[in-house]
Amino acid sequence: MFKLLIAFLGIAALALAGAVFLLIWIAGQTPIHVTEESEPAGAPHAPEALVNQGAVLAVLGEVSAVHDAEWTTSDGTRPGTPWAVSGVPEDDWIQTPFTVSLDGEPILLQGAVFDNLAAGDRAGEVVVALRGGEIGGDRYEINDGRDRDFAAGDRVLLVLSAANGGNEDSELLPTDHGPGWELMQRYSVTDGSATLIWGDESFEWPLDERIDAYRAASR
Known about the structure:
By secondary structure, the chain is α+β, with helices and mostly antiparallel strands.
């Protein structure tokens, strides 16, 4: 009787282990679609407010390339559990880097932070590590009421930050195309104007005026 009980418990343990492995395998194979939705509150943030929130530089230029989406894992592969139970990415997510060729020198909003990042070794261009993208059946989408669709040839004025909020612990995000900045604000540039999409509204300024405002906000 005792031997039968031991055998039964062994079979049960094997069955439980098999079920766990099966669930892990299914989780690894099931496409996951996550969408974070929000709307901008109040008026667009002024340049001074963006600097206080961690903006490090502003750049004017043209999107030269939008690269393939990639996982932020150290080896670039899909993590075993890419999303938290709540549906929000934990330590790893999908990003879609793009490169911007600059018209000239960036506007350093926080020069000391920029220098600490050692970010000046790719003269003439910056890489932006844009959160979101699609790889295989997995999709991570952010709908925050701002224009996050980029294409080669777009003329833009971008306000950029680094991970950890633009302080002494800041760091650029690794991408397959070099260290990447985080996007804080995007203005589309056409005919000497800078246009910001903000929820259901759009705001337009003369481009020179916007650039001067960011220069005045630098510290």
